[in-house]
Specification:
Blueprint lengths: L6 E3 L5 E3 L5 H7 L9 H13 L4 H14 L7 H10 L4 H14 L6 H14 L3 H14 L6 H14 L3 H14 L4 H11 L4 H4 L8 H4 L7 E9 L2 H13 L4 E5 L5 E8 L2 H15 L4 E5 L1
Antiparallel strand pairs: 1-2, 3-5, 3-6, 4-5
């Protein structure tokens, strides 16, 4: 599904309507040599998509029964999990199912679609940092995906929300370059391209030297770091665990490429220590307090 809710690119580069023509799911997926669906399973998924338009609860029940019949090792499982995710009734279930597709079935033909759907979900929830993370992961892990242009666009939306035109504008240009003959999508991207003036697209100015900043007051804050890894999958899993426990996690990426997952911005060290103790009790590991400018 595109950001306008209508179409989505697939592995053969074509587009389809998710709900108005569910039979097309069958014809598109049947030509994928690496992912052969049984007629029964494919029909059930297509039927669930169709029924979801008018009887969403019935469609969800169909997918629950299908998942119960399959094993997680079955090659049909990630497609069923993806479908169950996109018709789920609440954002939490949508995110959980799509994250499972990404983490557990990263080599399936559904993984890039799941990442893009996650990026859209995070943007709709007002979480631009998570939006950017999901879009960038799709771009990095699936550079040849037919959804690459969509990921560029969604990632740019996230960067704009973060007021980071220096990263947003190159993605807008890349989305335009990859838009092909899709006029409607190109028009959407063009709307955002108007924000990319030379000043907006310019890289951020260099940090001020010590002599320039000497005497300027700095207000430090404290955070609790719970993870530092290079694996985006581990980051996704940790962010999900934190959200379930009621903590707002965020990601800081350092020059070495490490993703550092941190919680909170606390005005005092003592407040951060209290949170650090709670996190240690609930998460385990060795969370620690860090000072941030």
């Amino acid at each position: 599904m595109r950001s306008d809710g209508k179409t989505e690119g697939w592995k053969d580069g074509r587009s389809r309507r998710w709900y108005s023509a569910p039979w097309l799911v069958v014809s598109l997926l049947s030509i994928l040599p690496s992912f052969r669906l049984s007629a029964q399973t494919d029909t059930l998924r297509a039927a669930a998509l169709r029924i979801a338009q008018t009887r969403p609860d019935s469609a969800r029940a169909m997918m629950r029964r299908l998942l119960a019949r399959l094993t997680p090792q079955d090659s049909l499982y990630p497609g069923a999990l993806f479908t169950a995710g996109i018709i789920a009734s609440d954002a939490g279930t949508v995110a959980t199912n799509l994250q499972r597709v990404v983490v557990e079935y990263g080599r399936s033909v559904w993984a890039d679609s799941a990442l893009w759907r996650l990026a859209q979900l995070y943007f709709a929830q007002g979480d631009p940092a998570a939006t950017v993370q999901a879009a960038e992961r799709l771009r990095q892990d699936y550079p040849d995906s037919p959804l690459r242009a969509r990921a560029d666009f969604t990632g740019a939306q996230g960067y704009f929300a973060l007021k980071d035109g220096a990263h947003a504008c190159p993605l807008i240009q890349e989305a335009l370059d990859r838009a092909g003959s899709d006029v409607e999508f190109k028009n959407q991207v063009d709307f955002y391209a108007a924000r990319c003036t030379p000043a907006t697209a310019a890289p951020p100015p260099p940090a001020a030297s010590d002599s320039q900043t000497k005497g300027a007051p700095t207000v430090a804050s404290y955070a609790v770091q719970v993870l530092a890894v290079k694996s985006a999958a581990q980051v996704d899993e940790m962010l999900t665990r934190l959200k379930v426990m009621g903590f707002d996690g965020r990601v800081v990426r350092d020059p070495s490429g490490l993703f550092k997952v941190r919680v909170g911005r606390y005005p005092t060290h003592d407040e951060a220590v209290k949170v650090q103790r709670r996190l240690k009790t609930r998460l385990g590991g060795q969370p620690f307090v860090v000072e941030e400018p």
